[in-house]
Design goal:
Layout (H helix, E strand, L loop, with lengths): L2 H24 L9 H5 L13 E4 L3 E4 L4 H7 L11 H10 L5 H13 L5 H8 L7 H12 L4 H7 L7 H28 L13 H9 L4 H13 L8 H10 L5 H12 L7 H16 L6 H13 L17 H13 L4 H20 L10 H10 L8 H22 L12 H8 L9
Antiparallel strand pairs: 1-2
Helix pairs in contact: 4-5, 4-19, 5-9, 6-7, 6-9, 7-9, 7-13, 8-9, 9-10, 9-19, 10-11, 11-16, 11-19, 12-13, 12-19, 13-19, 14-18, 15-17, 16-18
The chain binds N-hydroxyamidocarboxymethyldethia coenzyme *A.
N-hydroxyamidocarboxymethyldethia coenzyme *A binds next to loops.
């Protein structure tokens, strides 16, 4: 057995025993109450899931296995001294639960390189779509075409023992993770670079090679990709892409089917698509005002105009966070280090000064602060990646690290089919009249 797989199983067996003991001893303890408004309002604040890979604090932001983003930047192995962390290291951390050494990260990189071959029919399937199809549509179609490679699916059809589900899931997760950059880069080159494709460079790390296959050879863009892939990877379990992957996976749909479901969720404008919406919104502001560098007053007027048209300000607000997203801050730091004079990056920083007080003044926005999507586009544009419709695909490749590590945990812990109870408003009315027996099984 591969060292990585063996370590995962050893760790998982320990956690599995702990969970059994916890449930045996404390299974009946209550961890909260559910109000009627919560079931009408997107289940905010209802604790109903276990996700081992990361935990979100409303004020502090995300922690991956207990480590904040600045801590990861300090502690995870890097390609360059003093540079950004290698996302393979974060994957190791999420999967195994321990910080990796340099060797551990090199092992993950090498596993992903070995498994990265994408069969030609996947590219042919993508080619059958009009080139105008949104990159996220092409991405999901590519993932679905690749599903024929699923070990889980084949073994299940062959009569796999329950005890082996995790093993086949693990293999599928690594295969998928290894191949996603190739599929994503193919879509990028197909749509924006006249179909002139670039072969992988087997000497590069996962994110560096991804950047290379998209056609970016600037070492500081590779660093951006390493940071980007690290900070977008996971945001605990309840966000749409993570939850959709987990939910579909709970039906024992294989990792390809499950991850494609998550990506369909990421493609929504209130979730991952917000990164393209932010830059589109900034470009439209520049065009409508006929200025390259709008003043703070002009930005404020444009924000008010956006709100008056019944639209949201993209990149601001969050369902759980209540402070500036540390993923925004990490990108701001990257901007200060690599491109402090970029006009677009400076617009993003001016927007950061202007938007929160305006959103606060509405009196209803629970979090007026920027989220991860408010910054990423401006950094990408700096390196020439102006094709903003592609940005959510980048997010998707990164998100695979977290949700696929989680899927491995779901299977090894034998988490069951997810099936919460739903009600109708008619049944709510009857319940309010005291006829609550209708909410039985
Ligand atoms: N601009 C304008 N209004 C906003 C707003 C924003 N950025 N954020 C929230 N609001 C509004 C809501 O639309 C809601 O208005 P109504 O009561 O009229 O419906 C009200 O404030 C209360 O919303 P909330 O409780 O603060 O926020 P939600 O948990 O309902 O929604 C969202 C969280 C992220 C969907 C929301 O803040 C939003 O639409 N933001 C803009 C889109 C965006 O940036 N999405 C990316 C989020 C991060 C992410 O998942 N990235 O992938």
């Amino acid at each position: 057995m591969e060292v990585l797989k063996e370590r995962f199983k050893t760790k998982a067996d320990l956690v599995s025993t702990e969970i059994k003991d916890i449930i045996k001893e404390h299974g009946n303890r209550k961890i909260g109450e559910v109000t009627l408004s919560q079931i009408y309002q997107g289940m905010r604040g209802i604790t109903g899931l276990v996700t081992e890979t990361s935990l979100l604090d409303a004020n502090e932001g995300i922690r991956f296995r207990g480590y904040s983003i600045p801590e990861l930047q300090a502690k995870l192995p890097k390609a360059i001294d003093g540079g950004e962390p290698l996302p393979e290291g974060l994957f190791y951390l999420m999967l195994i639960g321990e910080l990796p050494e340099k060797d551990d990260v090199a092992r993950v990189t090498s596993i992903l390189q070995r498994r990265s071959h994408v069969p030609n029919y996947v590219f042919d399937t993508i080619e059958s779509l009009p080139v105008s199809a949104h990159p996220m549509t092409q991405f999901v179609v590519g993932i679905m075409a690749l599903q024929t490679e699923s070990q889980f699916s084949k073994k299940y059809q062959g009569g796999m023992n329950k005890k082996d589900y995790w093993d086949a899931t693990f293999d599928d997760a690594l295969d998928l993770l290894a191949r996603l950059p190739r599929i994503a880069a193919y879509i990028y080159r197909r749509k924006y670079k006249e179909g002139v494709h670039i072969q992988p460079n087997g000497l590069l790390d996962w994110a560096g090679n991804f950047a290379h296959m998209m056609g970016y050879e600037d070492e500081s863009f590779w660093e951006l990709m390493r940071l980007y892939m690290t900070i977008h990877a996971d945001h605990e379990g309840g966000n749409v892409s993570a939850h959709a992957t987990h939910l579909v996976g709970s039906a024992l749909s294989d990792p390809f089917l499950s991850f494609a479901a998550g990506m369909n969720g990421l493609a929504g404008p209130l979730h991952g698509l917000a990164n393209q919406e932010v830059i589109k919104w900034i470009f439209e502001m520049q065009e409508q005002l006929s200025v390259e560098n709008p003043s703070k007053e002009q930005i404020a007027d444009y924000v008010r105009k956006t709100l008056s048209e019944g639209k949201v300000v993209p990149g601001y607000g969050h369902a759980v966070l209540r402070k500036t997203d540390p993923r925004f801050t990490a990108q701001m730091e990257f901007g200060k280090k690599h491109m402090p004079d970029s006009p677009l990056v400076n617009i993003v920083w001016n927007i950061y000064d202007v938007v929160p007080p305006i959103l606060q003044s509405l009196g209803k926005v629970k979090n007026p602060w920027p989220n991860v999507d408010a910054h990423s586009g401006a950094l990408l544009v700096h390196y020439g990646m102006v094709e903003y419709e592609f940005y959510t695909v980048l997010f998707g490749v990164s998100r695979a690290l977290g949700v696929l590590a989680s899927l491995c945990w779901d299977r090894v812990l034998s988490l069951p089919l997810e099936r919460p109870k739903s009600v109708t408003t008619e049944s709510v009315k009857l319940w309010l009249q005291g006829k609550d027996e209708i909410w039985g099984e």
